[in-house]
Predict the 3D structure of the following.
Amino acid sequence: MAAVPQFRPPHDGPVLEFERRMLDAMPAIERWFRMQWQDHVPPFYGSVDLRNAGFKLAPVDMNLFPGGWNNLSEEMLPCAVQAAQIAIDKLCPDARNLLLIPERHTRNQYYLSNVARLARILRATGLEVRLGSLSDEVTAPTPITLADGESLLLEPLVRRHGRVGVDGFDPCAILLNNDLSAGIPAILRDIEDQVVVPPLHAGWAVRRKSNHFYAYDGVAADFGAMLGIDPWFVNPFFSRCGQVNFQEKSGEECLRANVDAVLTEMRAKYREYGIADEPFVIVKADAGTYGMGIMTVKSPDDVTGLNRKQRNKMAVVKDGLQVHEVIIQEGVPTYEWVDGGVAEPVVYMIDRYVVGGFYRAHRERGINENLNAPGMHFVPLARENTPFSGSCNLPDCKAAPGSSSSNRFYAYGVVARLAQLAAAVELERTAGAVAAERFSEPVSAPAALVAAG
Amino acid sequence: MAAVPQFRPPHDGPVLEFERRMLDAMPAIERWFRMQWQDHVPPFYGSVDLRNAGFKLAPVDMNLFPGGWNNLSEEMLPCAVQAAQIAIDKLCPDARNLLLIPERHTRNQYYLSNVARLARILRATGLEVRLGSLSDEVTAPTPITLADGESLLLEPLVRRHGRVGVDGFDPCAILLNNDLSAGIPAILRDIEDQVVVPPLHAGWAVRRKSNHFYAYDGVAADFGAMLGIDPWFVNPFFSRCGQVNFQEKSGEECLRANVDAVLTEMRAKYREYGIADEPFVIVKADAGTYGMGIMTVKSPDDVTGLNRKQRNKMAVVKDGLQVHEVIIQEGVPTYEWVDGGVAEPVVYMIDRYVVGGFYRAHRERGINENLNAPGMHFVPLARENTPFSGSCNLPDCKAAPGSSSSNRFYAYGVVARLAQLAAAVELERTAGAVAAERFSEPVSAPAALVAAG
């Protein structure tokens, strides 16, 4: 039943060369990560969308409030529990109670299955886990039955002085599975003596993709130097426009100029490495998520004179958040396909450990399009076909690259961990940004190719 | 092909009750372990032989230099690698090189497969791993080809001032997979600035089973108090005789008296809990291993007037070590059977994590006999039948006990970790014992029922 991931020729040649390089350098890579994690505290958890073009393998998005835990295979759970134990130990080693705050939408069965899975992993570490809801609809304990018969109890949050919990439950730690797109709720501000992870400034009320990729630039440069490769092989170019209003058609000039600049840089790299693909860039909300507010652009002309439908699509993202800041990111084609669709791997991490992943596949989208869109499906590949069930840390170094999927997934685990490391750096740099939330410029100016508009 | 473990009725009733208790208390148990590991440093690795009688589940032996890594299923390896990363981080976080010192016998393919597997796990953490041999036969780098075509390179140890390595290789850490039954080699003494794990005093030149089980008494008492159970359910009685000479027939009186005392204590417990079994004790070398020097005893008369063959069997264990110290341990019958044989689970741990296990089964031995004997076989059960491949940390708490093998294995993982914790306490207490090696009395007097002879 399980589909084997495949790679479109002739793009399979470069990917194998890249995997070989990773495999040969495994001890150096692992040691490098070990040293990096001495200087940086990994986020509690994260998931990374990767795109594998054969000639390059790069993260295109990094989620600090990962949903979709229900998409991972049962087999990866033991490693997830082990990693969660480590993460909890760091938070509060004598913790007994943990409060999990999910997204507000209480009727999405798919999302609620994710919450149930996550709670199961956390409970297996020995914590009492209760669910505190930010939803106005949850005014009393609200049981919800899931499709598989399991049930969840959503409870209203209770604030007492500097602490947050639910009725009769005072947690040591609060784990957010809510990305705070709608802003930081008052009830979560100025909490004392309780650990909130990820920190409030990791939420989309404050976070910017451009801050992440700016931190990633540094991580990729260090990694490239260590491995002796052009960091571009694991890093997409990007730029940013800070004052765009799609509905008012303002900021178009900034968009045009930056799209042009990124495409120009890409063309130079494509020439350097003899890549015949047509370059494209992805324009997306700098604070967006859920695959909303994203478009594929092949020319600066594509971003001017957008029609009403296009402008509406770009103007608003999740929870009605207005888009005024935009990131222009080098598009990385994906030449993998799974189960009849174009596919991109999504890798899940807890603390510094890769704990699983799956493919996001889409039968109606092209190799240069966002796959996080209605019609996508998830392929939690079976154990015999992929060690995504947990073996991202155990390649078969002696096997030829490509002969074993564990070797490909080792490479995926490496690049995903680069993004996790970049998130750690990003969160360090943006700490303290909650007070100044909705700041209009990134904390550290990204290496914009053209002055941001 | 894979055998499902089965439990002989009527012994399946009590085992289910016991599992239910463990499952219900999982958060409390996990939290208790978390607190314990704040006070004690887990051994680098360990394996524990368990016996499950239904009415009790207890460790009967704890190996600090586990072989048999090759018996674990491939599926458990990712968790093993993750746990090894954690353990290495503690040893020397910037480690690049690790020296693995295996047992001397270089021709045992079975053992060498274990070494290869162990090296593979360690390499996956990002270490360069080389094998340094204590064997006199290894005077130059000696390649050895394994049955599966893989090859190992054994190299002679090189000592330079206070450091040990192999030619051109100066490791940060030295991992012993040699239990030092033959004594502590001069080349490993007084090492400076290198970490040796497990420590030298964990080797059988110094270690005593009675010290371990004395520490285990304390751990089991604390655990029993936390869980509200009689610690006897997870702890076998034991006693010790310190001056036995089987060949000279001396020390028989001590043996008789202690066998009688342990049997008397057992009868009282059997009466208390209505257990109809015939009590038996296991007499074994206090410093022995490899299943050598072990006998099953049902009456004090069984240990007097041994014939020459019996005496010879008890007198000498691995590497010609003479037996003068003996532990008399409550026998725990095993009512599990697997693949047509009486079976006992063996659980493997790295640091504080259960990383896998298998059944040791024997078709020609009884429920009250040592199974670590010629004719035994190993059953690395298949994933669908057992989560020994790594799921010892993820029971299905809502399922009825016994309905899922993961629930049984959760209980096994708990008791195995009690033994790992006891080993931590034991090693703390016996630290510094290397100088005084071959001391004739245990470091802390065990709760001998009768004064040791």
Remarks:
- Residues 405-430 of chain A form the longest helix (26 residues).
